[in-house]
Amino acid sequence: TLIPSLTMGWLSYIHNKRFLDEKITTELQNVTSHTSRELGLWLKERQYEVRVFSSSYVVSENLEKLSRPRLSPFERTMAHRRMTDYLKSVREKFIDYEELMATDAQGVVVATSFEGETASTLPPGWLQTADVRKSIIGTPYLDQTHKTGVMIVAEPIVAAPDRFLGVLAAKLNFRGIGKILR
User: What is the mean pLDDT of residues 8-25?
Assistant: First the structure.
């Protein structure tokens, strides 16, 4: 009686363990797939927002002014101030951005929403990618200043006759991702 009971108990344990392992694996795959879709959607939304910001009249008009060689110091200051104010305003309204910065066609940062000197760097080869009008997505990394994960997303800034003016880059923080993962 004891041997058949132990054998049946052992077989039942093995069968139930196998069934639970398969069920847990399937559930984890479903949750991972759902989370992956949500993260992809989050990133696409941020890309779309940056694309909208980069096509703003304030950004393109003032960047075009700043690229003119014969611009008075007053006009240069006003164009820089307008662009900086716009970037700061956008950054304050959207919590997913640590910093927004605009560069000219040579890659020089002309305006930023960050107070002080910018510590952000754009991904390698970004200027060539932007020059052919493609979006730029950097590699995630740990921002030592804020001790949080960040990533650079950038869009080319183009004037009306399809003339490349520069890039609008956004340093995304991963606070929004934390909410998705929870």
Answer: 95
